[in-house]
Amino acid sequence: MTSLRSISSVRAARALPWLMIFFLGCAAPMAGRKNDGEVTAVLKVGTFTSGKKVIPLFYDMGKLHLANIKMPDLVATNGSERLVTLQQIIVVGRAGANEAVRYTFDGDALSNIVGEAGIKLNKALADPANDDGLKIGLGAVSTRGPFVEGLTLKPGEVAVFRLSRLSFIEYTGPASLTALDIKIVGNTEVPTPAFGEISFELDAHASKAEYVFPLAKTNVMLANLPLNLTQHRQQHSQEFAFDIVGMGMDKSGVLNTSNGAPTKLSDYIIYHKDIVAIGDGVVVEVAEGFPESRMGNPKEYTEAFFETLLKELVPKIGFKNALCGNYIIIDHGNGEYSAYMHVSEGTIKKKVGDHVTAGEAIAKVGNTGHSTEPHLHFQVMDAQDFLVANGLPVMFRNVKPQEMNQNISASNSLLFSDYLLFNELAGE
Known about the structure:
Elements: E1 34-35, E2 38-39, E3 41-47, E4 57-61, E5 64-70, E6 74-78, E7 84-95, E8 98-106, H1 107-125, H2 131-138, E9 152-153, E10 158-161, E11 168-173, E12 179-188, E13 193-201, E14 220-223, E15 242-246, E16 248-249, E17 255-256, E18 274-276, E19 281-287, H3 303-317, H4 319-324, E20 326-331, E21 337-343, E22 355-356, E23 361-364, E24 376-381, E25 391-392, E26 408-411, E27 420-422
Parallel strand pairs: 3-13
Antiparallel strand pairs: 1-2, 3-6, 4-5, 4-26, 5-11, 6-10, 7-8, 7-9, 7-12, 12-13, 14-15, 14-27, 15-24, 16-17, 18-23, 19-20, 19-22, 20-21, 21-24, 24-25
């Protein structure tokens, strides 16, 4: 089976070299603290992305609650008049007032997420031509640095901490996690510790409406699900996205996404299947300028091909349409927006302002944008602009948690595996 890449893994125009490098997660000031009666050198800590929400994936199995949390990326400013050398990061997950899980990072791990991140970000953020590409991974950046490129901060200097690239919080226990407390510890030139702290109330988001699956659940597979930590999960608005491909037995009896070796788009099982609106809402954005004829030969699907094609198309149809292909976005009127990407050229049935109902056909699956084969890239967000919106987990009334595992009683996302295969239509 041809592997699928996240829509953000391509490089487009001058922004492209940075798309798979930076995945950082806005600056909120923290007050100083005292330690044994002495005022410490203050590290003012905040998040790196404006409006960043920390949302756990969760599922319940019997009396156990299981959670997976992408840590937010941080910035810290040396608010003292002394040098501060960073030493350690402590992350505590709380269930109410009780500590439930603790992570500690230092040494090489700290150097990698601070010094190396500073080097790459300083280079990328210096050129505004990279901005759209960086937003795919970062969202809306609140500060452009410059950032320190090591572990020592002079007064007023800023460090960035790529915690999301270091580890995910994993928790299994009888209670739900409700907060993350993060403490950054350093040393000064005198024996006075320097530290800064920040806390996040966890947003255990669950879908606000009873949505339906965006395709007929017949011979389709969900790929790159949220627990695939190296794909969509590393991007900002795509944090809980997934790809849907066709799946069936090919002519040789092998489970595949196409009927034998594909030579044209119609050889793929999912090509031109109807895409349906997951819920009632209003169409707020449509892009349909990507010419699918340029994507008709599967043998051309290489990174070099995509880079050349996108450099050509970005000036003509814009960055988002070139990268994501033809797409449609629906506002469901409850703070949730659904996005359907890589849609076939000329098949979008709705225009901006049109009302849609749950299950109504809105377009057909295609192969436009950065797509290695026909598939539907689907995601839910908390705002219309998928460059800066927070991704949201989603469940569907016709995909029960038990379809992931019979022992799961509740979940806020199709997270149990990297892949989920449906071979027959599920009842409503």
